[in-house]
Description:
By secondary structure, the chain is mostly helical. It has helices spanning about 5-20, 25-35, 35-60, 65-70, 75-85, 90-115, 135-155, 160-175, 185-200, 205-235, 240-250, 255-265, 270-295.
Amino acid sequence: MLIPLPLMRAIFVLLGTSLGSVVTPATLQGMATYPLSIVVLLIAMACIGVGCAAYLRIVHGWEMLSAYLASAPGGMSQVLAVAAEIGADLRAIAIVQSMRVVIIAVGLPSGLALLGLVGHVSRPPGAPITAAALDEFAILIAVASCGAFLAHRLRLPGGLLFGAMFASAALHGSGLIHVMMPSWGANAAAIALGAIIGARFANMRFRLFLNFLGAAFGSFAIAVAIAALFAAGLLTVMKIPVAEVMMAFAPGSVDAMMLLAFALHLDPVYVGAHHVVRIFFVAIAMPILARREAKRRPKAVPAPGE
């Protein structure tokens, strides 16, 4: 069974709207506060993408398009949306991207807690969504849908998700909109995306799955080594808490990293600004490179590991 195409498109729009809501005016101000740290982050993310893609191509024999998408440092939902649209190998990309997120989400907070590197930032209670916010929510959905439609008409890979994300980010970052996608809506869209991805795993051989796991762990080790190298260099010239730098440079999903930052009482502005910059860097660069590589891609390409 497969997710129908109209429903799939609606899911991408909802996911993009939810992802864009992580941007706030405080986040944008934080981007201007740490210019050197932001620049170092962008260089590190570019090196991670190049290094991991080279590893997947040389060691595991992946074709360039799938290797590039699997190596994108974050933005798993966007990566998988692009991969589904342009016909890259979703099974391989999903395993590599998912394993990186899981390892970071489990290992990084545990390591920081064991080292006693938790923060001390207090958290204000969140405001519940009320009926008075329904007009803002309607505007958010309408503007995000228009952005998704425009990006899709421009034939951008993953345009439905990216267009909605940029439109939502513009509304939230400018302070015009404060309401966010309800958690049940965002969770339902994420579950549906999982169904879209999971359907591509049909008839996959166990040996091939093990091959993908090897690629996942190897590329993760390279990504962590590169991120740690740049983070260590930054700490030598800037006085920033180690835990915040580690969380900001971790190539995980934005929502997971922000939740971990809140749980560990780290500065949400610093961590959030870096992850928003990273995700938008990936969101801007990935469709351009993917579209260029897809045009040069042979018509019949074997799946990675086969």
